[in-house]
Design a protein that fits this description.
The structure holds 2 protein chains of 2 kinds.
Chain A lengths: L15 H27 L2 H17 L3 E3 L5 E3 L4 H6 L5 H14 L9 H20 L6 H26 L6 H38 L8 H6 L1
Chain B lengths: L2 H20 L8 H9 L15 H32 L1
Classes of the chains: A mainly alpha, B mainly alpha.
Chain lengths: ~220, ~90
Amino acid sequence: MSRGIFLHISEGFLPWTHAAGWTLISAPCFVYSLRCASVEMAAGPEARLRLAAAAGFLFALSALKLPSFAGSCSHATGVALGAILIGPAVMPALAFVVLLFQALILAHGGVTSLGANLFSLGVVGPMVAWLIAGSSTPSRARAFLAGFVGSLCVYAATSAELALAFPDAAGGVSSAFARFAGLFAITQVPISAVEGIVTAVVVATVNSYTQSPGGLTAPREVAG
Amino acid sequence: MKKGNVVMLVAAVALPLSFWALAPAGTEWAGTDDRVGELAQPAGRALLEGPAWTPATERLLFFGQATAGAALLAGSVWRMKARRGRN
């Protein structure tokens, strides 16, 4: 089986200083996220269902491998739904479960690269999606954009992490980032477009069945 | 479900299928993986290597994860719909 990168950086690929650094950056996000998730769990059955829907969406789309016209496969991310419905603060906890499952069972990603992968999938992508959506009941166009750009930003963050670890001998980090991002873009732009459409559909469906908007209040509830 | 959502749902299912239909012959399962791997090689020490599955088993596991996630999502939406119906 090919051991490589896909969306998630594989075990042993990052220098240990980078792996430790990304773990230190991601750890507080994960701890805060656990707190937010427990608040969401205690907020009632509807909030729990929203959390379950977000987890299911992330679990499904992060394993949905699609071929690109360039002759290679990649997978979507599924970060936007939870960020829109509940808020970005709960996403690191959900992403951690997905990343750990994939690292241990699917040999996809890794334990040493968990911090870097958690930062891109659990922090950057959801935050961008949340900022674009602007509310827990966005229009279809905004939900599409949140899914599309959020997914692309996960790959942009992964490219940046790789570029920092493997700078170009001549062009440095920026040149390496352009090369990594260029490789990902070939497969990821069309797949992210699909993710944007699926996100818009599921957001509209979930919001048509919920009685109170969730989402953007969750981080403030915890902070207060 | 609103008509617009039905149209988008059909598009959301049809688009990935069209990707598989239009993909070039010999599309690699791990193509992007290999290409990025040419630029980045292991630079650290692996703490824990995951299991080495055969390609068929790996695809089955990916499909299983996607199916489990879809089931959780569908179940949650179904419960939301049932709760709304009761209220």
